[in-house]
Amino acid sequence: MKNKRYILFIIIPVLLISLPCKGQISFSGMPAGADFRNVPFIKLPGVNRDKLISIEEQERLITGKKSLRFGKIIPVSLGIDNAGVFQSFEGCQVWRIGLWSPDARGLGLIFDRFDLDDGEKVFIYSPDKKQVLGAFTGGNMNKNKTLAIRPLPNDSIIIEFQFKENRENSLHIGSVVYDYRGINRIINSKDEWYNTSGPCNVDINCPEGQDWQSEKNAVCREFIYKADHGYSELCTGVLISNTSETDTPYLLTSNHCIEDTSHAENTIFVFQYESPECDGPDGSVAKSISGSELKATSENLDFTLVELNEIPPITYNPIYAGWSNLDIPPENSVTIHHPNGDVKKISVDNDPAVVTSYSTFDENAFWNILQWDVGTTEAGSSGAPLFDQDHKVVGVLSGGDAHCGNSVNDYFLRLTDAWDDYSSSGEQLKYWLDPENSGATSVNHRDPYLAVEINNYSDIVVYPNPASGLVSFIQNKFSPGAIRVQVYHPAGYILQDVEMEFTGSRIDLDLTGLKTGLYFIRISQGAKNETFKVSIVR
Length: 538
What we know:
Blueprint: E1 11-13, E2 41-43, H1 49-63, E3 68-79, E4 85-89, E5 92-100, E6 107-114, E7 121-125, E8 132-136, E9 147-152, E10 156-163, E11 171-179, H2 185-188, E12 202-203, E13 219-226, E14 231-239, E15 250-253, H3 261-265, E16 267-271, E17 288-290, E18 292-298, E19 303-308, E20 323-324, E21 333-337, E22 345-349, E23 354-356, E24 366-371, E25 385-387, E26 393-400, E27 408-414, H4 415-420, H5 430-433, E28 442-443, E29 460-463, E30 470-475, E31 481-488, E32 494-502, E33 506-510, E34 517-525, E35 528-536
Parallel strand pairs: 1-33, 2-5
Antiparallel strand pairs: 3-11, 3-14, 4-5, 5-10, 6-9, 6-11, 7-8, 7-10, 12-22, 13-14, 13-16, 14-15, 15-19, 16-17, 18-19, 20-28, 21-22, 21-25, 23-24, 24-27, 25-26, 26-27, 29-30, 30-33, 31-32, 31-34, 34-35
């Protein structure tokens, strides 16, 4: 009997559509149309905003640390087994609950139980539905089944869970993040919050940042939820490469920013928050990843290395920064950072850094920037990378005295000390960044998507390419089962995101709705993924 070969032809029409800004990696879908006017709202306690800000400022004067607190974390215990209301809608069950505080400038969440089955979705939105986060699905789950959600800039929010059967242990809110500074208004209201850093700071897209357009895409802003401390804060971090040139999304920051496993799990990493022009308009915060896994940290050296829960998508234009672990002072230095939570800035020192000690940390483990020639650093800059003259990371910011008007004495942990001063893999960088023990003293920055080449896979064929409409992918890499196909515009935003059952070896895409140009097609299945460049010519 002859073997039969079954091929599934999957035709995906692609339309040029506008998508809502979604602040974190999320999936398709919208809140249910069922009546939500009778959702019960729980009133949250208020906070003394001025007192909290004053306490933080006094602590910063003592410690010199440059993180920035923006929210108070309020413990709650809310789940579908003890709160909210239920409705039926188009064959599924909908659970909703509202949270409200008349003085809050934003409300975020920590789900300490986030265990969703296929097809189940969670949304967070304002009562008027003009601001929507989600859908969050099983694709957002980490191995600990938790999820941190960035604050929605509103004093009241609705949480909605769409499911099909009894799921009382699947979703639970353990904490609410009460944003008392209005950190998300930095994103949404230029007049009130944009440009909150000191006037001496320089946008990354000004002439001073012209030669740093690759490295800037390694730097991100961190929303860190510290339930054990009762507050949330802002820092800066940097994606960093490894000697094996794998796509493992390691990110380096300060220990006083991310101190432990819980903090790593409940941090939101925001990429490409920058003004598109020099002294230009506010930027977008649409590109972020929730959660990470702690790999190494040291209180004695003030550094932390985490692995993000997801590889940043191609639309984030991620760069894994290069590094040098040599014990040689940089001839000149640059840091890229988010002072006061503002859009990405650049600071420049044209002189050599000096080896020194700082605070209570290990002796002679820091680079001292004596004075910035361009810009400065502020609260929110902690964890920022120090780049040397070769554009390699050689340090990470702990703190210092620098501010506009007196931009002197900042202190960056030296990468050479974080490398292997301590023998435990949980207290050094070497084990993670040089996994093959190659002995390398430096690596260059790496674009994880630059290696994508047309028709360069032995097990996948793309044809025709260039194409005028229909494009086919013939492959044997992916197994029968669920796959995900995403089509990206060259400007970075997503045009189509489809999940489907794949039972054969061929995928056909109908791209007739696209204009002439270059597009990216990403096909993924679990940990397997491939990204292709496809040219459309009319």
